[in-house]
Amino acid sequence: GYAFEHNQISEVTFRSKIEEINGAAFRSNQITRIDFSKSNNLKKIDSSAFYNNSLTNIEIPSSVTTIGNNVFDNNTGLESITINGKSKSSEFDKLGTNWNGTCTNIIYSK
Prior knowledge:
- By secondary structure, the chain is mostly beta strands.
- A four-stranded parallel beta sheet has the order 2-4-6-8, with no helix packed on it. Strands 5-7-9 form a three-stranded parallel beta sheet, with no helix packed on it.
- The protein is globular.
- It has strands at 11-13, 20-21, 33-35, 44-45, 57-60, 66-67, 80-84, 94-95, 106-109.
């Protein structure tokens, strides 16, 4: 974890080979946009991976089966989280506590 913590990163694009984002990897940056559109092998987003950023909307790929605790917490402007390939939270292998921070607009898109 903590690989890119406390940098000035504002945008992240993940490619198809990534399978896991480690805990706190992008914590405390200024990320406004995450592109998971080519991340069809991503399985796990670990705890606090994007904690304390500036995200407004996020779209989770259908391949993700595990989301850790506090992943999107302290993104105070986060308006919506779209979960692709699932119709309810119980379809995850693990969905951590407070994973969505204060965002209550969770959209399941199957």
